[in-house]
Amino acid sequence: MKPVQKVVIAGGGTAGWMAAAFIKKVLGHAVAVELVESDAIGIVGVGEATIPPIQLFNQYLRLDEKALLRETHATIKLAIKFDNWRRPGDSYYHTFGAPGAALGFCSFQHYWLAAKAAGLTQSLWDFDLNYLCCEAGKFNIIKTPNPLYELPYAYHFDATLYGQFLRRLAEAAGVVRTEGVISDVVRHGISGDIETLVLQDGRQVHGDLFIDCSGLRSLLARQTLGVPFESYAHYLPADRAWAVPSERFASTLPYTRSIAHKVGWQWRIPLTHRNGNGLVYSSAYLSDDEAASMLLANLDSTALAEPRLIKFETGRLRQQWSHNVIAVGLASGFLEPLESTSIHLIQSALVRLLKVFPQHGIAPAARDYYNADSQLEFETIRDFIILHYHANERDDSPFWRDMQALQLPTRLADKLALFRQTGQLFNDAGDIFRDSSWLQVLLGQGIWPTTYHPAALATSGTELLATLARLLQAKQQPLTQMLSHDAFLQRYCQQAAS
Ligand SMILES: Cc1cc2nc3c(=O)[nH]c(=O)nc-3n(C[C@H](O)[C@H](O)[C@H](O)COP(=O)(O)OP(=O)(O)OC[C@H]3O[C@@H](n4cnc5c(N)ncnc54)[C@H](O)[C@@H]3O)c2cc1C
Description:
Elements: E1 6-10, H1 14-27, E2 32-37, H2 54-60, H3 65-71, E3 75-77, E4 79-83, E5 91-95, H4 108-117, H5 129-136, E6 138-139, E7 154-156, H6 159-172, E8 176-179, E9 182-187, E10 194-199, E11 204-206, E12 209-212, H7 219-224, E13 229-231, E14 240-246, E15 256-260, E16 265-270, E17 275-281, H8 288-297, E18 308-311, E19 315-317, E20 321-322, E21 325-327, E22 333-334, H9 342-355, H10 364-390, H11 398-404, H12 410-422, H13 435-444, H14 461-476, E23 483-484, H15 485-494
Parallel strand pairs: 1-2, 1-12, 2-8, 4-15, 12-21
Antiparallel strand pairs: 3-7, 4-5, 6-23, 9-10, 10-11, 13-19, 14-17, 14-18, 15-16, 16-17, 19-22, 20-21
The protein binds flavin-adenine dinucleotide.
């Protein structure tokens, strides 16, 4: 039970600097923090779309949102628009909002389904303010206790600039940055714990607890400690991405686009100075050259650089915490970027670690809790991503047909069966995606329930339709006072720090 007086972070990408800033902020009075990174190796340089909980992380660090948006060329993200996923030509949104409202005993979808049966023509999304703002290209920050008008949002930002933003904050708070390539690692002869990182020029960095943020290399956890990797490739076969920036559009959309192609899918992320684009695909179905051509042929603005190839394997380390090493970020595993969850996984790993921080020595029970909890989180996100691929009606390539034929993980298969039979969704432990997220993707991918909850029929069809008509009006009401997304960004970012 060796006490922890010094934390060493290996790697200075988004994961490394998030870890440095957060640990210093929470425990800077109790532990020293040193980060080692190599400019020669560099960072992965992608990871531009986020999900709303990042606001909590930034708020905890007391980041000024306006400065953050300005300095990282950020835009607002209200949703992901999925094109061609169910079948070519089809589109739906997965928004961060919750369609509808709490109307009674059961969830909104049951009332909406009952109203559909009574003649309602509106889609589920018509009752969602996030969707209405996406379609209108509008945004404003709404601070209201009224759940009807909640407008949850996240950011698209330049990943490199976000890391630098955090680096300035962390260094100002006292984090020591050491530049150099880690070429050797010294372990304790008996416990096997890591004691020292040795740099190429012979300098040594000692520590008590090591955070492996070395990216896909997983230098400490996988390479040094030999922690086994559990591959998810049999569920999620994408293993490569081409990434390329392109010129920005005259007006900036407040959502990410995910466009399915014959094999894999393309992302388009709007920033204020450029668009980020990429094609995620499986090398078993598409060659690298074909994939690069597919991406370039489908860009809708001029490319600003040559495309860059990134190879990865979907899966996770079986133990995210092994010995005195906690793997965070790409070093801990990777779920492809379809739902922009990797930066969130960094955030939740750090929160989880700090909850059981081993100040007085590593307690095996704390490590076990940490590992079990992170496994659950990885698996529920994995299942959500599988749903998008599996529930497709495309018949234009072996890739999509193979995805339809997937043998699903049991938890996901059970969830789908329940929804199909009853229209019910229950939030699984560890699942960061709420029912409203599952609902939108299920319906968007064409999975409809055969029935709905009888409580939705407590009022007559006419009364229900009248209620939903009032709700529709209420949901549209804030739009009238909103700025265009670009006007919002311009006005907000010019304001002084709050
Ligand atoms: C194609 C793709 C798209 C993605 N899109 C998204 C997205 O939209 N949203 C999202 O949330 N996430 C996304 N991600 C994930 C996201 O990019 C990462 O989670 C995030 O960038 C964190 O990366 P990292 O810090 O773990 O690794 P990296 O950025 O690779 O950093 C690794 C660090 O380790 C250092 N290092 C490595 N080896 C050594 C050594 N021997 N000595 C010294 N230093 C060393 C490097 O110099 C670097 O500083 C995407 C990932 C990929 C592959």
